[in-house]
Amino acid sequence: MLEYGFMQNALIAGVLISILCPCVGVFLVLKRYSMMGDALSHASFAGVAIGILLGFNPIISAFIFTSICGLLIEKLRSYYKKYAELILVIVMTLSVGIAITLISSGRASASVNSYLFGSILTVTREDLLTVLILSVISVFTITILYNQLIYITLDEDGAKIAGVKVKLINYLFALLVAATISVSLRIMGILVISSMIAMPVAAAMQLNQGFKRTLIFSIIFGFIDIMTGLILSYYIDTAPGGTIALTSVAVLLVIILWKKLLVCRN
Amino acid sequence: MIQIDNLNYTYSTDTEYILNNINLNIEKNSYVSILGDNGSAKTTLIKLILKLLTPSTGTILINTDKIGYVPQHVGEVNSQFPITVYELLRCHYKVLNLKNSKLLNEVLKNFGIFEFRNSLISNLSGGQMQKVFIARALLGSPDLLILDEPSTGLDAQNKQEIYCILKNLNLNSKVTILSVEHNIEAALENSTHICILKEGTAKINSISNYLGGVSC
After folding, report:
1. Best of B77, B83, B132 to disrupt the A interface by mutation (most A CBs within 10 Å)?
2. What is the ipTM of this complex?
3. I need a labelling partner for B34 at 20 to 30 A (CA). Which of A56, A128, A164, B102 fits?
4. B chain contacts of residue A163, beta-carbon cutoff 8 Å
5. How far is B134 from chain A (nearest CA, A)?
6. Rounded distance, CA A266 to CA A225, Å?
7. A212 interface with B at CB cutoff 8 Å
């Protein structure tokens, strides 16, 4: 399996994504904003369609369009303070509208399935470089903003009073989510990205640990989900999005059962 | 410490002011309890002072940047958040860019929560949680400490401990305290001044004016 260049590219990209997705996901889930991942993955669909139409690298066009939508979500948050999910519906409607219109027009229909369901065959060296650059910038930014992000996620008012530039960091975070989705869409597919942002965190939260350990366990579970899913998809010859999603559910179930067993034994 | 002049506030431009022409002077080293019925805009007033809300008209001047805030631990903060006591305090310490590495353990010991430093905040009792949030607020050695209902949901012993901490801070560390209170008894016992909010207006008086009791 490892002798194939495409599989090497897919596995390297998988490692990067397995670090990045939970790093962003832990803050999204704890902000109770995990559906933002879903809204922005739909936005990336429109970005991919625009990229194909204009002859751009679809990962870059997805990053640009998803970033614009991420910033739009942050901007609209002040208009719909009590109805955050409504903002996500607005952005999803806009994105799906653009994507379907472009794809059904026949001008941007090439290989849409591989973007929807993920593919291990389509990760080129150029894609890998884009994924590497975006991942390094994103993980570096999260490391720098780590304490501010925790503060905002736990207690946004307290963060403002402590002098954290909450608005600026929320905008930066929206860009981080956009970057995460853009780097993940080749491997996992648009339909599965939001699950991979939330599922490893959901599994890690079952372990009732502090923040740092929850983050570390999320990365471990993300790594298991993506690597197992990729290898399975190679052997059973299916799109990796499906096997990654199923693995993440299996990991969550194993942890819930393990916890139950521990409780029963005690 | 805090000078409020002609403050008016409404959440929506097409409704009446919920705070109407408020003028208050909160002196340095005082301990002011804000009392009022539910819905009398007590929390709104402290959010205006904390600059979390912008006044419709009027001014609020505070002559310190070192402000500590203790939120209502029930409701305002996600108590199920997976974070340990130590991580919570360390996060505040890092955000304030403090340099004294012994400070965290000192604060934990001073508040009697050192043994819980590795516990999740979700596993703490109401009293322990309140101590953690007061400890967090005090990390930056604030001149002004603002609290929102510090004793809500606590049992009698924890209430007593919390008010003892606050009174000590006021008397010995000269921290000015502004506290939204439901607990009239504690307000009378500990405060130097009482501020009563009623129908959008505020009146502040020295505690000696209320020795016969408070009527909100």
Report:
1. B83
2. 0.86
3. A164
4. 95-96
5. 12
6. 29
7. yes
Shared domain check, B187 and B129: no
Q: Long-range contacts made by residues A101-110, C-beta under 8 angstroms, separation at least 24?
A: A102/A46, A102/A49, A102/A50, A102/A52, A102/A53, A103/A49, A107/A53, A108/A49, A108/A50, A108/A52, A108/A53, A109/A52, A110/A52
Residue range B64-94, pLDDT digits in tens: 889 999 988 656 677 778 999 999 999 999 9
Hey, is the C-beta of A168 within 8 angstroms of any chain B C-beta? no
Strand partners, B68: B145
Best probe of the B interface among A28, A155, A207, A218, by most B CBs < 10 A, is A155
Write the pLDDT tens digit of every residue in A88-114: 889 999 999 998 898 888 766 666 777
* Residue/partner pairs of B110-116 with CB below 8 Å, 24 or more apart: B110/B135, B111/B135, B111/B165, B113/B85, B116/B85
How far apart CA A226 and CA A248 sit, in angstroms, is 8
Which residues have C-beta within 8 Å of that of residue B67, sequence separation ≥ 6?
A161, B50, B142, B143, B144, B145, B146
Size of interface A-B (CB pairs under 8 A): 68
Domain containing B46 equals 1-66+143-210
Residue B83 to residue A150, Cβ atoms within 8 A: yes
Q: State how far residue B213 is from chain A, nearest Cα, in angstroms.
A: 34
Are B148 and B136 members of one domain? no
Contact yes or no for A161 and B82 at CB 8 A: no
Domain of residue A147, CATH code: 1.10.3470.10
Is B215 inside any structural domain? no
Tell me if A155 and B82 make a contact (CB, 8 A cut-off).
no
A151 to chain B, any CB pair closer than 8 A? The answer is: yes
Q: Are residues B61 and B91 in the same domain?
A: no
User: Quick one: pLDDT band at residue A119, thresholds 50, 70, 90?
Assistant: confident
Q: Is the pLDDT of residue A60 over 50?
A: yes
How far A140 CA lies from chain B's nearest CA (Å)? 17
Identify whether residues B156 and B121 lie together within a single domain.
no
pTM: 0.87
